[in-house]
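Reopening this one. Same input as before:
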Amino acid sequence: MKSHLTSKTTVVKLWALHGLVDFYIGFDIWDRFDWYSAFLWHQGLEKFCKAYLLGTKSSEYECLPEQQARETIDKIVRKEMGHNLIDMLDKLIAIKVLNKEVKTKVYRYYGKDYTGEELIEILEKAYIECRYPLITDPVKRVYFTPEKTSWWDPLSSQELMNFTFEVGLKILGSIEKDFNITISRNRTENEGLLFKFVKNEDWLRFRRYFFEEDV
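Same output, byte for byte:
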């Protein structure tokens, strides 16, 4: 028997909201745990990508009985998509959800230029580092002096956050427009998730930064 729990609207909104939770937590801890912020931004962006792509594949699960639909969704997100963020972003570029300039746009921080594609690679490395700690950090510091006394760690860069939020907001906007789904900006309307534990002033600070709202 079909279930509203596996309808396109429910599935897409659920994945998008969980991505929003990842973005919020990453934003909240950024000044203290930049490694884990990058991990959470990777996860949030991945969930936004999967939310949209699941919306395009709703014919594969929406008409199925609930348990079978759940298994089909699980197969799509685990086996077909995995955690390959670059591949998911490429798919969204191919169907015009994102502009191809997402990967070529240059972001500058402390005199160092990074393309969007390079920042995606940094997110990927941070994701791997958090899951499988290594002796040598895969994301290298950028030194400004021969003596290596002045350096910049890409993971603590505001540009990494800016890039992730910029791309995430574009995907979220397309989810709302293309699937006629509303993701509430009101914290109290999303209390089924972590947001019920979030102070209102902290949520408003995140809204101003991520949604670029004057609240």
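So the earlier flakiness isn't reproducible anymore. For the record, Strands lie at 106-109, 112-115, 142-143, 151-152.
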